[in-house]
Design goal:
The complex is a heterodimer of chains A (304) and B (447). Chain A has 304 residues and is an alpha/beta fold. Chain A has eleven helices and eight strands. Chain B has an eight-stranded mixed β-sheet with strand order 3-2-4-1-5-6-7-8, sandwiched between helices. The two termini of chain B are 22 Å apart. Classes of the chains: A alpha/beta (304), B alpha/beta (447). At the A-B interface, helix 2, helix 6 and helix 9 of A face helix 2, helix 7 and helix 10 of B.
């Protein structure tokens, strides 16, 4: 398990490093240094305001001591990013049980695949599972989920396409209660955060879950694609306002995207990142480690 | 972004009032705002740099300095340069002289290939073409089922094999099936793949060599960030795609990545996709897109949509009524029905030029339930009331409420909505006339 986790990180580390040109081999810390660093930071998708705040911190550091060695500045950069994304997290599977974990997000971020990976984590921890097929909109979404459920040998509750997702959730919770299962994993339809009707629908899904299980026993996680640009901040803000999110799952970090938008999400909205998805296999998900992420982006060896 | 860019520029220029003439310092401040806006829109860092240099070159020229309306001038320059980047003309689909024309849909996971495949098939069908959809994504669970179920919805032929391990076999037999039934176009939905996944890229490259499609469309999520350019360049290295499809434009992302991809790969954006409904798919018009990005609206698309949904004679009658400010509740009901046909209010509004104060208002969404309520309330009104809603007083209101089985507050809400719509329509009516007269419409900016 640990080995796989390290491999995953190594993989994402290799990819994270591709194309990111860091100016730390420069001899002098001058304006062109900061300009190149600005480009590198922007290229991670952390956004202009986070970039500016990072650069300001670094300028202060560089100003304090003249001729600050670049590797010290690099260490500061890693530290600054790490601090921005270090937010106390929760264990989504912890008691009280039964507990519902609802996955939300815009279309195509990888909710269903992430759900399967979470299911695997729960099973490995010896927790009993019921999966709720709350995406009653997308053609064959229920089928995609039931294929996963079959592979994992877990119970699935699904209704017909076009049905009320809140009713699916209600039934899934009832099933978990009667079968004495600890965790209910709920897949939901992808929805754009500016679609008022669908945002009302997702609020209802959460309301129903809270009514059945209590506030402490409902976890809402937003799934976000690592390739997402600045719109990711708007997405997180809107979903957070509607549902008060417990955390973020960052997917598809096995591409060359850096997923820097989570720096902005954590830095500006204070929402913690819980997991990172790095592939299509069931084991390709690991807990998010701020330190690892930050040094994979900017640490030693990052600009090879 | 560009909505706020327009606002920011207006503010910057408003400062000029105090300073008098335009000077280089102000231009630099303006460029700073434009740069921020472009970066916040996910436009590629390098593309922004080049764009800003070009804009500066033109902005410090006499064009802006001698103008009495520098904000308009700068916006015009930005718009021109954006259009330049997006490509001046819209490009049509390549077709093969021998039937069927083969189209590949390719891209990252989750970009919207399957939905776009079905939407494209529907668009082609509406133009009298016979299309056949091939489900060649053997990896994502139920991807083939998804495409099949969409093909049934739009009533377009479909081919796939569920137990096949090789997309090549599926495509080959799919094309045979298409030839047999005389299809004009075959659309192949390929599996989503990461551009860094060599094995999957090899597969795609081999498929391209084997079938030589006339069109290979790279499907790009409009919410994509800075990595879009890397992604597109990696795809381009292996597959010579012929165009881009920009998806999820009903979100509020600005699509700067797509603009950058077009700029670095030279491949035109051919289609844009918005809404989860299967008719939210249009040919891409760069000028319109740039206008929409700038918050100038997309009056042309709106007019086309309106014309498709409205009866021409009705439209003329309505336009006349709007002009004379005579819109009544009968028209309103008819409007609601028509607008429902055209799409959501939000969608329509996003195509409208910036009308001050209008976008800030929460406009009602119209769903079927809503429409039913409106119908019930309006049909409980007398002819006089419908013609002149101003006469509806307290007692009339409670009668209407009782008659329609709704609360008096519902009646109030409807009337409020009617007045807002009336206002909006009046403003739109004005713009419409401008557009028809061929005037370049720019928002009035008070300096």
């Amino acid at each position: 398990m640990l080995n796989r986790f390290q491999n995953g990180l190594k993989k994402s580390r290799e990819n994270l490093l591709s194309h990111l040109k860091l100016p730390f081999s420069k001899r002098a810390i001058d304006e062109s240094f900061f300009e190149e660093l600005e480009e590198a930071l922007i290229m991670t998708d952390m956004g202009l305001s986070q970039t500016e705040s990072v650069l300001l911190d670094l300028r202060l550091k560089a100003g304090e001591t003249k001729n600050l060695p670049t590797d010290e500045l690099r260490a500061s950069l890693v530290k600054i990013i790490e601090e921005k994304i270090s937010i106390s997290t929760i264990d989504p599977f912890a008691e009280p049980h039964p507990k519902a974990i609802i996955l939300v997000g815009v279309n195509g971020t990888g909710k269903t695949t992430s759900l399967a990976k979470l299911a695997k984590i729960a099973l490995d921890r010896g927790l009993g599972l019921v999966v709720g097929a709350g995406d009653t909109f997308r053609a064959a979404a229920d089928k995609q989920l039931s294929i996963w459920a079959e592979r994992l040998k877990v119970d699935i509750v699904s209704h017909q396409i076009g049905g009320d997702p809140a009713a699916v959730v209600h039934d899934a919770i009832a099933a978990a209660k009667s079968r004495k299962k600890e965790i209910i994993l709920i897949d939901t339809a992808g929805r754009l955060h500016n679609d008022r009707n669908l945002m009302e629908e997702i609020k209802k899904i959460k309301r129903v879950s809270v009514r059945e299980l209590g506030d402490d026993a409902v976890i809402t996680l937003m799934v976000i694609d690592a390739t997402t640009g600045q719109n990711g901040i708007v997405q997180a803000k809107e979903f957070n306002e509607a549902l008060s999110l417990d955390g973020i799952i960052l997917t598809k970090l096995d591409g060359s995207a850096k997923g820097g938008v989570v720096v902005a999400i954590a830095g500006e909205l204070g929402i913690p990142i819980l997991y990172v998805g790095q592939g299509e296999g069931l084991l390709d998900m690991s807990p998010f480690d701020p330190k690892e992420y930050s040094s994979a982006l900017f640490g030693e060896g990052a600009d090879v | 972004m560009f909505d706020s860019l327009t606002e920011k520029l207006q503010k910057t220029f408003a400062k000029l009032k105090r300073h008098g003439r335009l000077n280089e310092a102000v231009v630099d401040e303006v460029l700073r705002e434009i740069r921020i806006a472009l970066l916040e829109a996910d436009t590629n860092y390098k593309a922004v740099k080049e764009l800003i240099a070009k804009i500066k070159e033109r902005a410090v020229g006499s064009e802006v300095f001698n103008s009495l309306t520098p904000a308009q001038q700068v916006i015009k320059i930005v718009k021109d340069e954006l259009i330049e980047l997006l490509g001046r003309d819209f490009t049509k689909l390549n077709t093969s002289p021998k039937k069927p024309t083969i189209i590949f849909m390719i891209g990252l996971q989750g970009s919207g290939k399957t939905t776009s495949s079905a939407k494209l098939a529907k668009l082609l069908k509406s133009r009298g073409k016979r299309a056949l959809l091939i489900g060649a994504d053997i990896y994502r669970p139920a991807a083939i089922d998804q495409l099949e179920s969409l093909s049934q919805k739009i009533e377009v032929s479909f081919y796939s094999e569920r137990d096949s391990k090789d997309p090549r076999d599926i495509i080959e037999r799919g094309i045979k099936a298409a030839t047999k039934e005389g299809a004009d176009i075959v659309i192949v939905d390929t599996a989503g793949r990461l551009h860094v996944d060599q094995e999957m890229m090899d597969e795609l490259s081999e498929l391209e060599k084997a079938f030589r499609p006339s069109e290979v469309l790279l499907v790009v999520d409009s919410m994509m960030g800075q990595d879009g350019v890397n992604m597109a360049l990696s795809f381009k290295e292996r597959i010579s795609f012929t165009g881009l499809v920009l998806t999820k434009l009903d979100g509020d992302s600005k699509g700067g990545a797509a603009l950058s991809i077009k700029a670095v790969t030279g491949s035109p954006i051919k289609f844009i996709s918005s809404s989860e409904k299967l008719d939210g798919f249009e040919e891409f018009h760069p000028d319109r897109f740039a206008q929409r990005m700038l918050g100038l609206g997309d009056v042309l698309t709106l007019i086309e949509k309106a014309e498709a949904a409205f009866d021409a004679e009705e439209t003329a009658k309505l336009a006349e009524k709007i002009k004379r400010d005579e819109l009544d509740l009968n028209d309103f009901l008819e409007q609601m029905r028509q607008i429902r046909k055209m799409g959501s209010f939000d969608q329509i509004l996003s195509m409208m030029p910036n009308i001050p104060g209008l976008k800030a208002k929460k406009l009602p969404t119209i769903d079927d339930g809503h429409l039913k309520r409106i119908e019930a309330i309006i049909s409980s009104m007398t002819k006089e009331e419908r013609g002149d809603p101003k006469i509806i007083n307290g007692s009339r209101r409670s009668r209407i409420a009782k008659g329609s089985g709704h609360a008096p507050s519902d009646v109030n809400q409807l009337l409020k909505q009617f007045n807002e719509t009336k206002k909006m329509m009046k403003q739109f009516g004005k713009l419409n006339t401008h557009a028809k007269m061929g005037k370049k419409f720019l928002p009035r900016i008070d300096l």
